[in-house]
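G.,

No rush on this.
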Amino acid sequence: MDTIIAAVQGVGVFVAGALARFGIFLAALAVLAIPALAIALMTRGLGRLRQRALKLSDAGGFTFSGMVSYAPGSSCPSPGARCARASRWPRSPTGAVRSR
């Protein structure tokens, strides 16, 4: 009988120790996660403030500016801006035309 009680006590001590270590791990995780969550929320808020200050609006994943006129089928975002024209030839990062 003493052997069974000793075995049950050993298992109980092991389970209690494992639960205590898991609790310490969760507490440490919470301590580290709270500042990271605060930083993430602040950067998200600053991004929203920036969008509001620049009068940007989001529509279907595209960001539009309230200070620019848009026209269907146009690739020029505003008068006087350089238009993005479709070209037959691919361009290099420097702007030079590459041959195929």
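When you get to it, here's the other one too:
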Amino acid sequence: MDLLLGPSQHDLTPAIVPYLPSFVYDGLAYAAFPSRTGFEKDGQLDIDMPCLELAAFAQAWLYFGLLETLTTLSNIHKKLTTIVDDGSNIVVETSKLDRLLAGSLPAGQFLQLDQSSALATAREASNRLRHVQDPDERSYIVFFFD
């Protein structure tokens, strides 16, 4: 999942990422989402959760939640997910992102204070989640926001 909008004419295959439906962004205060979902410990983002749970949480908050906070869109997870294969897999399909964002980000509009705050919160959370390793899967889940 990425938020980079590429040129309209390109030969790149769109990124397709599994949708992890354990959490759904609720549209309430962006920075308080970890607290509402049990991912806050001692006032900080709790990264001592199982990796798959962290990935689902991060997808809901840092991807879908941030998109909803920065745009006029709601329930964006429903608009960016697609059923593939035999109908048993749901994926996030970024190829739909250009079209969705085109009508929800007016040109030349500056970010509102709550949107700027959400970006700062996302950056801070992403730095905390920068490298989380799942020892069972022997794979890395890397979160970044630069």
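The chain has five helices and seven strands. The two ends are 14 Å apart (CA to CA).

Enjoy the weekend,
O.
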